[in-house]
Structures are given as structure tokens and as C-alpha cells.
Amino acid sequence: MLYSCFSSQLDSYPVSKPDLLVALSGGIDSIVLLRLASIYANERHLKCIAVHVNHGLSQHAFDWEGVCQAHCDFLSIDLYIERVQLTVTAQDSLEEVARKARYQVLDKHMQANSLLLTGQHQDDQVETFFLALKRGSGPAGLSSMPSITPLSNGYKCRPLLTVSRSDIEQYAQDNELKWVEDESNKDTRFDRNFLRHEIVPNLVQRWPSFASSVSRSAQLCAEQESLLSELLQPKLMAFQNTYQGISISQLNSESELARNMLLRLWLKQFAIPLPSQVQLWVLWNEVAKAKEDANPQLELGAIQLRRFQDNLYCLPQYQDLSAWKKELSNTLDLPDALGRLIFSTGVEERDLNNKNDEQSLLLRAPNQDEKIAVRFNVLGLTAHPEARERSRKMKKLYQEYGIPSWQRTRLPMIFYNEELAAIAGLFVCRTFSGKECELIWKKTDLK
Q: For binding ATP, which residues are annotated in this chain's numbering (predicted)?
């Protein structure tokens, strides 16, 4: 019965001849999963491998490697053991850091047709539902874990989500399988373990079908979320510009419920944790609706939400480059994924005709006593672009050129000695105008 459920689930996935990759921890769930995947692969003549990630968090970690190797040898399945070192700060969740490290190494073994099989089951789904309920999640969170999720390569699949823990334990006992027990799974200081050992067993004892009922509720929440996304997708696409900024004025014409859902769908595109209700309120009322001359922002983990003109933008947390300064001779690699500057002399006439106006600027050659330096975010400057009649403060010029406030701090400023000569990608100052030198900015980050 367990294999029938497993095989029918895999048959429903959208890859006709998949490569199977089993995420093998050595615990009972993954050991049973490995056995089922081996049978399925042999029946259908598919490639099947296993990957064990050793996080080094347990004193028994190397013993677990041996257990995994023994099972794979018995089944003639290739096992890849990946050992990772975790760097955890006071602000980090150990579980989240370990999860990210695990999926980074698993991705190395994935192909476009790979199915990454993990051993989560119905009881895990119940725990995930309760954790989402504790956080006050809406339908998206309460939908818990999907059976299949697309990855950059292949798919992550949970083919045992409709199977109970007791059925998995029974299968392991019937087939005399050996597995390892992670001692941390018994520590009820962790929320998931508290639910597993203290709460869910009492609920199931009172209502035996409780786990399947929760699983059904999670599925209904997932369907509702999917329908809302489908209905709002045309508006979401229409409200965004070419830089994935979303229009504030168009959002303002929607009801509060529709607007909040559109904002969640917009943020979901960036694969970041979705904001709480309070954060969503702050995003709209203190960022989107702030005064025109304000420079509001909301930080959510590793990203920042900013407003420019009539749009909201989702951006990474950028480095502070105000203290960065380097001399420029021929080429210079810029910090924080900003690309490279190329400074060439002796520009020929044919180069002038083919000049890319967006990335290339022409300047006079520096005098013998002039050194060229590149800096960022130098404040209090006044500049006179060669195409203008008079000079203006940089703040006013940035406004005229339509440069968002966060991008202004990331534009390379070219100095001849201590005088501003050019802003890469933007303009050359009049007194430094010429045709002897060309400045090219090969950008890798345009946000």
C-alpha cells in the first residue's frame, strides 16, 4: 500500500523520465524513501542517486554517514556525501542556516529533469500547519508544504505527504530496516518537537482522523491561494514596470483587501519571506504613502523596500560605499557587484561613431599632475554637465535625470585629483569634456 501511494504520486509529477535524487539523512523517513525510490527506479529503468549532507552538528554525524552508505551499497545506489560547515550568527536560526546549506549542496547534483525526493509525511504537515497557525498566517502559510515545488534545476518533491508516520514505521519494521535517531528530535525546546511529542499525539488520540483532516484543510488553503493568484495575476503584471516596480497609484485604486493581496503576490516573486500584517501596513502607510520629498524604506531581512516617484521597489541590502576609493588607470573592478570601469586613451573616430551613449562617456586626457580616482556618494558637490548652461547641486541633477535615491549612492564618481570630472553612465562635467579618453561602465547590477 505504501509503495502504491508513493509510485502513483511520482507518476503524477510533470517529468516523464526523471532522474531521482533522494535526500538521505539516515532517519527512518529518508531510509524508507530510499527503499521506495530504489524499487520505482528499477521498475522504470531510471537513474537514482542519494545525497547525504553532514552538517557536523551531532557527535554521531560520521556514524550516520556509515548507515547511509550501507543502505546505498545494499541497493546498488550511488551515494554522495557532502560535508558542510555552518556559520551561525546571533541573529540567525540554526535550522534555517542548515537548511540553506543543505539545499546549496543538493543543487549541485540536480539536472533539469531531476526530482529531489524528501521524506516529509502527513504528520510533518500537521506540525507545519500548527507552526503557521502560531504565527497567525493566512491561507498561504496554512497551505503548509506542497507536494511538488519547482527549483532552478528540476523539482523538489514530497511524495509521502499523504502517508502517516505510523505507516512509515510499520513499513520499516516489516522490511527490517535500520535507521539512525537524531537526538535533537527529542528536545522539546524546539517548537516542532514540542508539537510532535506533547500536542499532536493527544489530538490524534482524541480524534484519530485529525491528521488527515488537517492535511485536507491545508490543501483547501492551497487551492484558495492558487485561485486568488490566478485571478489577480493580470492586474499584477499590468501594475509593474520594466524594473518590477509596482505602481502606487494603481494599487491605491484597489480595495484594501485586493491591494494587500497584490502586494504579497508582488513580493512573492522575489523569493523572500512574506511580510506580516504589521509590516504590510508599514509598507503602504509609511513607505508608499509618505510625503513626496521623503526617502522612506522598510527593511525585511536581506532586502529593502523603497519608493521612487510612483513605484515601490524590492532591492537587496547594499553595501555602504562612501569610504571606497580607488585609482583608475585602465580597468577597475567595482565593489558590491557593480561591474567594471574601463578607461581608454587615444579614442579613434570609428570608436566615436559606435559609442554606446548609455555606458560610454568621452573626456579630455588628464594632465601629468592629475590622478584619476573613483569614489561613491561624495556629498555636497555641485556639477556642471557639458550639455547644460549652468551648474547645479548634485541632488537637483539626480532629480532631473530621474535617478532613484538608492541608486545615487551606487554611481561611480570620477575625479581628476579632487575635482569631479564625470558620473559614470550619466554625464561629463564641462571643464573635463573632450575626445581623448573614453570611460565605459560595464554594469552587472542596474538596480
A: 25-30
Q: Is 19 annotated as a binding residue?
A: no
How many other β-carbons are positioned within 10 Å of the β-carbon of residue 241? 11
pLDDT in tens, 320-374: 899 999 999 889 999 998 999 999 886 654 444 444 444 689 999 999 899 999 9
Detail the DSSP E strand segments found in 59-139: 78-83, 114-117
Residues 46, 1 share a domain:
yes
End-to-end CA distance of the chain: give it in Å, rounded.
Answer: 53
Whether 26 has a binding-site annotation, put simply, is yes
Alpha helix locations (H) across 291-376? 349-353
- Mean pLDDT, the chain, rounded, equals 89
The position carrying cell 502504491 is 4
Total structural domains within the chain: 3
In-domain check, residue 37 = yes
**Domain at 154, CATH number:** 3.40.50.620
Same structural domain for residues 399 and 250? no
Q: How confident is the model over 405-430, as pLDDT tens digits?
A: 888 999 999 999 999 999 998 999 99
Is 27 within any annotated ligand binding site? yes
